Design the sequence.
């Protein structure tokens, strides 16, 4: 039996990209044999400015969305990262294991920092070390993510390898990304070259999992396309990023390959296709939005569940991180015999 770990930043409402790229895979995986741990990564969230009151609300809201998507608090451990101090302790050790040259290669840092690199937080720079700590604190070996996280997972393996080498142990296992190939990268509705993101300034660029049916229909109607009709075969989607994205989204929601979607809609205009796409999204997302509201109506219930999740998470991570601390040379409880 393996252990699965993944995380999501509570920096806004989960998007269709988060859902198709990661969350629905989490829901599928918790039905299997492996232990599943899902984390609301609030420590990662504050690497960019978050209004404190909003962060608290968004953390509960993200918990509600995940439960509404089908994450089960019985089958999985669901908790917020700041409630388990083992993450921050192991992250510090990894800050001292990872090399600056490795972090300098991280494309997500370059994207997020943009031209103003000197002004972003140091937390944003060491963000991938914390992510490595999240996973390794549980000896998790499988990590379901969208493909924007793959470079960070390679780094997590490099860090584990160097730790094992430096401290003469085979303590941290290798991790394996689990990526749903067909929806690993859902793109913005306004620009087929950018990924759909909860932090995009334009709300029109994304479908939020709590959007109303009217809003979903309007966003899909306005989604950017090109003037040509939909092609008959997948190869012709190559240079048409917006068309490829919408076909991909429809396929992911309906469980169809892009070829099967084009067999139905190829040769036709975007108008009728967009209508079907909006319909499919509304059918799929409406119950999620409804249940999210129900969970949010009971904040005490949500908090109770998150605290229980944090206790279970801590019970797994504490002995692992304490052993990492001992390997590093810290004086730990096991040496002190008290
Ligand atoms: P975050 O919050 O940006 O996204 C959560 C998950 O959603 C996936 N995702 C997408 N997939 C397809 N298309 C998109 N447009 C799209 N946007 C987001 C992400 O790949 C991710 O799987 N650093 C992580 C959170 C994290 C984490 C971890 C993940 C912290 N620690 C440990 C795995 C393991 C992040 O910012 O995800």
Sequence:
């Amino acid at each position: 039996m393996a252990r699965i770990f993944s995380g999501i930043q509570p920096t806004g409402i989960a998007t269709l990209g988060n859902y198709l790229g990661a969350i629905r895979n989490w829901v599928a995986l918790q039905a299997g044999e492996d232990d599943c741990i899902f984390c609301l990564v609030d420590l990662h969230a504050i690497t960019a400015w978050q209004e404190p009151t909003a962060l608290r609300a968004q953390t509960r809201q993200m918990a509600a969305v995940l439960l509404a998507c089908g994450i089960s608090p019985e089958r999985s451990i669901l908790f917020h990262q700041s409630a388990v101090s083992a993450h921050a302790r192991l992250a510090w050790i990894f800050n001292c294991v990872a090399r600056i040259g490795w972090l300098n290669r991280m494309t997500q840092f370059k994207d997020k920092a943009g031209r103003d690199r000197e002004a972003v937080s140091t937390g944003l720079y060491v963000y991938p070390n914390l992510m490595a700590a999240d996973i390794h604190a549980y000896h998790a070996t499988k990590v379901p993510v969208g493909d924007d996280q793959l470079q960070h997972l390679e780094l997590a393996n490099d860090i584990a390898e160097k730790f094992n080498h430096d401290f003469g142990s085979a303590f941290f296992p290798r991790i394996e990304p689990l990526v749903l190939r067909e929806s690993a990268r859902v793109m913005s509705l306004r620009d087929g070259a950018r990924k759909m993101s909860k932090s995009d300034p334009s709300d029109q660029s994304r479908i939020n999992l709590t959007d109303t049916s009217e809003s979903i229909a309007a966003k899909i109607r306005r989604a950017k396309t090109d003037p040509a009709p939909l092609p008959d075969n997948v190869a012709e989607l190559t240079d048409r990023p917006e068309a490829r994205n919408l076909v991909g989204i429809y396929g992911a929601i309906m469980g169809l390959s892009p070829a099967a979607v084009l067999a139905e809609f190829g040769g036709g205009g975007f108008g009728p296709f967009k209508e079907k796409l909006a319909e499919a999204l509304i059918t799929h997302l409406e119950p999620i939005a409804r249940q999210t509201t129900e969970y949010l109506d009971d904040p005490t219930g949500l908090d109770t569940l998150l605290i229980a999740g944090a206790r279970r998470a801590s019970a797994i991570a504490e002995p692992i991180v304490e052993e990492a601390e001992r390997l590093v040379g810290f004086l730990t409880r096991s040496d002190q015999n008290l």
